[in-house]
Amino acid sequence: MATTLVLSLTSCTQQMSNQPATAEEPLEVVVERSKAVRPQWMTASPGQLFAAGGEIRMLTTRSRLSNLILGLNQTEIAALDATKLAVATRIQAQLIDFTPNSTPLLKQRWQRMVLESTAKVATSVIKVSDIYYEGITRQVANAQDPIRQYYLVAVLVSLPKETITGIYNDLARRLVNEPESDWQALVARLKQVLALGTK
Fold it and tell me: Residues 50-75: pLDDT tens digits?
């Protein structure tokens, strides 16, 4: 049996508010949900990596989806790609002080290395941990099409924390034989991080 929840259109479509709408505002009513209770992980900020137990996780949401099956598939693919990109971006940020930037080509080469190492290591272990969706009816007063239906889909992606160590190891192997002196500080930093353990 569907659970009904009135939502304010002024809230973000990714994080729907439970505040009641005013008489002048369109109403969004949840008429269907995949779980009786919204999962706790839905409180996470979409697009932001966070730690949970021995995993790194990220929430991805998409709204205004008219086709649930297609929306689920597209959101899953987008969530996996977005999480890998977020991991690569975090690694680049952690090593930015040691990154060679003497030329644009070296900088671009390093960024490509991080993306390639992340894809190589993460692809085999990254997974969709959970999916949640809501079917929503949007009611607009005095409109030619007063009621519209769509879905909000949320996907939780996770990968083991050890994945970061694996990416660092892969990067270290790539750089060990690089002749350019520009890489030496980065290689030394990678060895130091691996010796201390990554977080």
Answer: 999 999 999 999 999 999 999 999 99
* DSSP letter (8 states) at residue 178: -
pTM strictly above 0.85: no
CB 76 within 8 A of CB 65: no
Return d(Cα 83, Cα 166) in angstroms, integer: 16
> Any residues with CB less than 8 A from the CB of 38 and at least 6 apart, and which?
132
C-alpha to C-alpha distance for 48 and 87, rounded to whole angstroms: 10
Beta-strand relationship, 55-65 and 27-33: unpaired
Provide the 3-class DSSP secondary structure of residue 140.
coil
Give the span between the Cα atoms of 51 and 86, in whole angstroms.
13
- Is the predicted pLDDT of residue 79 greater than 90, yes or no? yes
Answer whether 16's CB lies under 8 Å from 133's CB.
no
